[in-house]
Specification:
The chain is mostly helical. It has 17 helices and 2 strands. α4 packs antiparallel against α17 and α8 crosses α17. The radius of gyration is 20 Å and the shape is globular.
């Protein structure tokens, strides 16, 4: 298949992404500017919001993060996992890369750049906070945006749902131990109970609420109404929650950013290298195993992208709104869309590396 044919067949970015997803980097930059301005000229806003805490958890931030994560979790269909036995290789690649490779390569790359290469530019204590943010990103594979990347590569939507659902289940049990272990060997001590509370607040609660909502809504109104009406009404909640969270975060981060603008670029460098590395590990492995492109491309993109909403939430819960860890996770949001669109283009141009998709191989979509 020629590159021109692939380009014509693949959905366009404009067709596959809404205005929020297409310009996520722009929204993040605008949120950064708005937050810094609020922090500098209206400090009463962050000072007032900082008073609303319980057990070191910011109530306003928790509400906004639930608003971000809950709509994503509503999409997860655990019944779809039952069909994975028909095509286990794609799932083996995704889960192995996401949980046995990605967190550790993220740690190694971020540690090398932030603690060694950039040592003359970043104070050691702040570099460790940035490293902590990178670790949180590396331990959280993508949950929601991967459906967009899957669509743009003409991925198998039903199989992508399986991959995401399995990763969410693993995340319940693996996120906390991996984070605590990697932070520990980085000489960053965090209490287990705080990490466990983060998992409960930002994974268990929204995942449970999302699953129950999905089951009840489909049971009462049907899958067509759920997908065509309910999910469309719910769609704006995530971008609104994300932008408001970023504005609040940067209102607290204003001094750090104004004093260290170069740090944004320095944090981005290891994140960019990690993104491409993880993608090509999974993608080449899928090619070697002759996995269908409609499974291989979304699977590789899951690992390359991050569940940045969870990473931001965990960074704030563990280290605070004004921490370098929180800033590092937001840099992950800033660079994600341009990087992922570049990888989508690579995946579409290399479709001929993989066996042709057979219509009979596609997994039927499961319903609740």
């Amino acid at each position: 298949m020629s590159e021109s044919a692939v380009t014509q067949d693949a959905p366009s970015i404009k067709e596959g992404m809404g205005i929020f997803e297409r310009y996520l980097t722009v929204w993040v930059a605008l949120g950064m500017i708005a937050g810094v301005l609020i922090g500098q000229f209206l400090p009463v806003v962050p000072d007032t919001l900082a008073r609303f805490e319980y057990a070191q958890v910011s109530i306003p931030v928790a509400i906004l993060i639930w608003a971000m994560i809950y709509p994503m979790m509503v999409q997860v269909d655990f019944t779809s996992i039952l069909g994975v036995r028909r095509q286990p290789r794609g799932l083996i690649i995704t889960t192995t890369v996401n949980w046995l490779i990605k967190p550790f390569t993220m740690f190694a790359i971020a540690w090398f750049f932030l603690m060694v290469v950039f040592q003359p530019f970043i104070p050691e204590a702040l570099a460790r906070e940035y490293l902590a943010g990178a670790i949180l990103l590396g331990a959280a594979p993508c949950t929601a945006m991967v459906f967009v990347w899957s669509y743009l590569t003409r991925g198998d939507a039903a199989y992508t749902l399986v991959q995401v659902s399995v990763n969410d289940l693993i995340m319940l049990f693996a996120f906390a131990p991996i984070v605590v272990f990697l932070l520990g060997i980085s000489d960053i001590q965090v209490p287990w109970d705080t990490v466990a509370l983060s998992v409960f607040l930002y994974i268990v609660i929204p995942l449970t609420a999302g699953y129950l909502t999905r089951v009840l809504m489909i049971r009462r109104r049907g899958l067509e109404w759920f997908d065509g009406v309910f999910m469309k009404r719910l769609a704006p909640v995530t971008p609104i929650g994300l932008i408001l969270t970023l504005i609040l975060l940067f209102a607290f981060q204003g001094e750090v950013i104004l004093n260290n603008p170069l740090h944004i670029l320095l944090i981005a460098i290891p994140l960019i290298i990690q993104t491409f590395l993880v993608f090509f590990i999974a993608y080449r492995w899928a090619k070697a195993w002759r996995v269908r492109h409609s499974v291989a491309a979304p699977g590789a993109l899951i690992g390359a992208s991050n569940f940045f909403e969870l990473a931001v939430a965990a960074a704030i819960a563990l280290f605070g709104l004004q921490s370098g860890a929180a800033l590092a996770t937001v840099v992950g949001v800033l660079v994600e869309v341009p990087l992922m669109l570049a990888l989508v283009r690579i995946a579409n141009r290399t479709r001929n590396w993989f066996p042709a998709d057979a219509p009979s191989e596609s997994m039927p979509a499961a319903s609740a």
